[in-house]
Design brief:
Length: about 150
């Protein structure tokens, strides 16, 4: 995993991460270059999501133009998605979600969902929840039932 570079000023910090940034809605999204924040804090959960997405991404830049992976994180739920051009208009870039992880604070567990063909999220039955997000990320990568990657 690439190292993170932090640049801290007196009142405001700029966090530079290779390809993760903070979107306008407050969620961290893969694909931006830098973000301005009040506190330069990267949670261990976010590091795990970043590492997982980096393991999925193609190494060749030309392939990344056709298929890439990203995520958004709002502090409680993460949305994992494919980034690809629209088939009939390559100038339009689509973000197609394939997995959602939610942290339930009261129960201190992570819940894993997959998107059905109807566009609705459904609990992933082989392992719908866990106290460890790494277990669920491993389950997504293994994809024994073909729910996440087909």
């Amino acid at each position: 995993m690439r190292s993170f570079q932090r640049l801290v000023k007196k009142q405001q910090a700029t966090l530079c991460i290779d390809s993760i940034g903070k979107a306008d809605d407050g969620r961290y999204k893969h694909g931006l270059n830098s973000v301005s924040m009040e506190k330069p804090l990267i949670s261990m959960i976010e590091v795990q999501f970043r590492s997982f997405i980096e393991s999925l991404r193609p190494t060749d830049e030309e392939i990344r133009k056709q298929l890439d992976f990203g995520y958004s994180w709002d502090g409680q739920s993460a949305l994992l998605f494919e980034i690809r051009p629209q088939w009939n208009d390559p100038t339009k870039i689509l973000e197609l979600p394939f997995a959602k992880l939610r942290f339930v604070k009261s129960a201190r567990i992570w819940k894993l969902y997959w998107m059905r063909g109807s566009g609705k999220w459904e609990a992933y039955e082989p392992q719908p929840e866990s106290t460890d997000v790494y277990e669920l990320l491993t389950e997504i990568k293994n994809d024994a039932y073909g729910c996440f990657f087909g």
